[in-house]
Design a protein that fits this description.
The chain has 140 residues and is of the alpha+beta class. It has a single domain, classed as HIT family, subunit A (2-Layer Sandwich). Helices cover 30% and strands 18% of the residues. The chain contains 3 helices and 5 strands, in the order αβββαββα. The chain has helices at 8-13, 58-79, 125-138; strands at 21-24, 28-32, 42-46, 83-87, 103-108. It has a 5-stranded antiparallel β-sheet, with helices on one face. The longest helix is centred in the middle third of the chain and has 22 residues, at 58-79. The protein is globular and about 50 Å long. The two termini are 26 Å apart. Bound molecules: 2'-deoxyguanosine-5'-monophosphate. Residues 8, 17, 19, 31-35, 89, 95-98 line the site of 2'-deoxyguanosine-5'-monophosphate.
């Protein structure tokens, strides 16, 4: 797996590669995705260089969380989109291609935007109780 310091996004942060920047503060950079699913498809990244969401510090996570709604509002205003998806992939099996944490803001306009294949099962009472307890116990 590529080290976060070697990713395309790290090189954008370092100014080695260009981007279409839409927002920047001390902890966060947002720029247009160069392979957009729709007009205005924007990537929001922490400046902290980790691959996965669960590795993010509370400070970096709070910074990203604070600006995501503002950037989403701007994307909607600029594109006229009235619907959008926020997507955040972790791991190759989950379709992550760039191993630096990033959130996609993807406007849904007509048939352009995120396509989803969603195959829900049904949570039983017992399984729900077991899983909720296991996850609650694992929270640090
Ligand atoms: P993901 O599959 O969640 O890791 O998404 C990575 C996204 O990054 C993908 O939608 C395409 C985008 N991307 C890849 N290389 C570049 C680049 O050099 N510049 C920009 N702006 N986006 C990139």
């Amino acid at each position: 797996m590529a080290k976060p310091s070697a990713t395309i996004f790290a090189r954008i942060l370092d100014g080695e590669l260009p981007c279409h920047r839409v927002y920047e503060d001390d902890h966060v950079l947002a720029f247009l995705d160069v392979f957009p699913l729709s007009d205005g498809h924007t990537l929001v990244i922490p400046k902290e260089r980790v691959a996965f969401l669960h590795q993010l510090s509370d400070t970096a996570a709070a910074a990203v969380g604070r600006c995501l709604p503002r950037i989403a509002r701007a994307v909607m205003k600029a594109t006229g989109a009235e619907a959008y998806n926020v997507l955040q992939n972790n791991g190759s099996a989950a379709h992550q291609a760039v191993f630096h944490v990033h959130f996609h803001i993807i406007p849904k306009v007509g048939d352009r935007g995120l396509g989803l294949s969603w195959h829900p099962s049904s949570l039983t009472q017992d399984r729900g109780a077991d899983l909720a307890q296991a996850i609650a116990d694992a929270i640090d």
